[in-house]
Each structure stands twice: as structure tokens, then as C-alpha cells.
Amino acid sequence: MIPNGRKQCRSRCQVECADSAEMEKMVEINGKTRVCGLIGYPVEHTLSPVIHNTLAGLLGHDLVYVPFPARPGSVKDAVRGADALQILGLNVTVPYKSEVMDSLQEIDTLAGNIGAVNTLVRTEGGYKGYNTDMEGLYRAMQSEDIKIEKERIILLGAGGAARAVAHLCALKGADTVYMLNRTLDKAEQVADEVNRMTGRNVICPILLQEYHRIPEGRYLAVQGTSVGLAPHDDMVVISDPAFYKRVHTGFDLIYNPWETRFMQLVKAHGGRAYNGLKMLLYQGIIAYELWNDVQVTKKDAQVVYERLKAHFGVS
Ligand code: NAP
């Protein structure tokens, strides 16, 4: 308790709740407390506990969320063990989003198409795998009024996250997505899969250094490579000002640092720029909704977002 009888939130940032309606209940672990968690390697730097433990507090759920480091080669055992312990749900992070698929009872169609699972929900016979990254990015974009429908989009990268972005853009009716990657083969493979699935040539693969081949115009650009991730804050995959003059909106999937070099360059050339923290927020919220069969309100989402922002010293 803090003075005048108001409770303090139990997350690391120790933010005092703004009004009593937002006040979290303290979860006291007891015999019925349900457990959710994260498997990945490493997991020490994850912000997911902030999301899920804050939501549990806000919604009064008797639930705790714990990160579990799963050593390379141990994913099958980790999933089997979680099932035996009746762990309600798990998030899955790098490097196991594809590997974990072999250990599941069932895979949601969308996650199967993307080829990556980041959320497991316990069912009768084992876990069902979902991909909430894609829908998380969509909700994040909606919250910033970023349109995908009929847009011409530049997508930097063809790794796990960029694959999900390519699927999202195609499913939500993007006009064309120029997918630029250092390794052209990977971008071509994603383009083949997505274009076959949607029945139209929406993804157009281009070698990264040939970005000048993109037709004239102004684009939404999604930065989906790992270049620029802390501690390499000053790195960016393309630095040519001519490229940024074509970007009206830049969305970097990276959120650490808070403002990436890519975002700085977009802004310097008159565009608006966003980082990936809201994508992280919403992929977590969607997972929480799947585990608990609830709808998280905008107000609660905002409380969690403020809590996440506090970790970057941003108010
Ligand atoms: P990944 O599968 O390892 O893919 C990495 C991508 O970066 C590939 O396209 C790779 O190109 C490219 N790349 C790496 N080093 C490069 C370099 N020096 N020059 C040019 N391209 C380079 O990683 P991922 O899982 O897709 O994650 C990508 C980023 O998204 C990460 O920074 C991650 O933190 C972020 N992310 C954010 C969220 C969120 O919730 N906000 C969720 C998922 C991921 P090649 O194919 O040529 O190797």
C-alpha cells in the first residue's frame, strides 16, 4: 500500500494507477492460480510478463505469467512438460516459432500458412498453435490509422516477422508489396507462397540493394529486418535519402531503441514513423484473449501500453 490507501501496481515500473477503476488486484498465488508463460532462448529481456501480469491484475484473473528459457534441442520436452503441468498457454519466441510446430496437437490455418506459431493454447489432447503477430501488427496499425487496403507497400526483410507482414498485407488487400531482402531467394520463396495462396501477384521480390527499381510514388514502408536493433542503434538497412523521399509512413517492427535510425530517416524526409511496441502489445493482448476467452478493452490496452512505455523512459 502507498499513502492515502491507494494500491500500487505490482509491475517493475511501480506506476501508481490513475484512478480506482484501473486499480489492479494483487494476485496472490494459491492452489488454483493458473500459469501461462513464454518459451524461447534467451528470454531474460522479454517484456511479455509486463503485458500479461498487468492484464491479469486489471481483469482480476488468478493467473501468473512466467518466462521459461528452453535450451536448444529442448522444445519438444518443454511443450510436453507444460502440458503435463497443465500450463494454460505459452508464447513462443526466437528461435522456436517454426520448430515448435512439430510438437503441437493442432495448428490454426493462418499460423500454418505463415509457417510460424507464437502462441499455444492448451486443449484436451495437447496444444493448439496460433500466430498473433500478424493480427497484432494489424491492430497496431489500425490504432495509428495506417491503412493497408489498396496501399502500395515496401517491406524490408523476408525473415520470420516479415513473412507474417507479407501474409497480412496480401490478406488485407494491399495493392502491391515490394519485398526487399539481402537474400533474394528468401523473398522469392515468400512471394511464391503468398501469391499462390491469394491468387494474385501481390508480393514482388527485389534484391535489397536494387531498391531503386521500385516504381515512383509514395509508400507505406514496413521495416522487418533485425538491422538497427539495440545495441546497434545507428544501423539501418538503407540510408539513401532518395529512398526515404518515397516513404509517407514508416513502421519499424523494432521497438528497442524507441526511435530507430529508420524512423529518424523517415521523419527527416517528412514522413510519419512508428515503432513496433504496439505490435508487441497487441500480439500479447490477442494471446491473453485466447487463453482467457475475454475481450480486452481499449482502456485496459492503454494501461498496459503506458506500463510498457515506462520501460523505455517514455511518457
Ligand atoms: P529473422 O527471421 O532472423 O530475419 C531477419 C531479417 O533481417 C532477414 O530478412 C535478414 O535478411 C535481415 N537481415 C539481418 N541482418 C541483415 C543485414 N546485415 N543486412 C540486411 N538484412 C539483414 O528475424 P525476425 O524474427 O523476422 O525479426 C525481425 C525483427 O522484427 C527483429 O528485430 C525483431 O525484434 C522484430 N520483431 C518485432 C516484433 C514485435 O512484436 N514488435 C515481433 C517479431 C519480430 P536475410 O534473409 O538476408 O538474412
Structure description:
With 315 residues, the protein is of the alpha/beta class. A six-stranded mixed beta sheet has the order 2-1-3-5-6-4, sandwiched between helices. It has helices at 48-59, 75-84, 109-114, 133-143, 160-171, 184-198, 241-244, 261-268, 277-292, 298-310; strands at 34-40, 63-69, 89-92, 106-107, 119-123, 126-130, 152-156, 176-181, 203-207, 219-223, 247-252, 272-274. The structure holds NADP nicotinamide-adenine-dinucleotide phosphate. The site of NADP nicotinamide-adenine-dinucleotide phosphate (NAP) has 26 residues, from helix 5 and helix 9.
Which terms would index this structure?
315 residues; alpha/beta; 10 helices; globular; disordered N terminus; binds NADP nicotinamide-adenine-dinucleotide phosphate
Concise overview:
The chain is of the alpha/beta class. It contains ten helices and twelve strands. The protein has helices at 48-59, 75-84, 109-114, 133-143, 160-171, 184-198, 241-244, 261-268, 277-292, 298-310; strands at residues 34-40, 63-69, 89-92, 106-107, 119-123, 126-130, 152-156, 176-181, 203-207, 219-223, 247-252, 272-274.
User: Which structural category do the helix and sheet elements fall into?
Assistant: alpha/beta
Proportion of strand residues = 15-25%
Helix-strand string: EHEHEEHEEHEHEHEEHEHEHH
Give a short account of the largest sheet. Answer: 6 strands, mixed
Euclidean distance between termini CA atoms: 24 Å
Kindly state the number of beta strands.
12
User: What is the count of helical runs?
Assistant: 10
Question: Major sheet: order of its strands?
Answer: 2-1-3-5-6-4
Bound ligands, each once? NADP nicotinamide-adenine-dinucleotide phosphate
Task: Please tell me what the overall shape is.
Answer: globular
Radius of gyration: 20 Å
Low-confidence stretches: 1-22
Q: What's the overall average pLDDT, rounded?
A: 92
Task: State the share of residues found in helices, binned by percent.
Answer: 25-40%
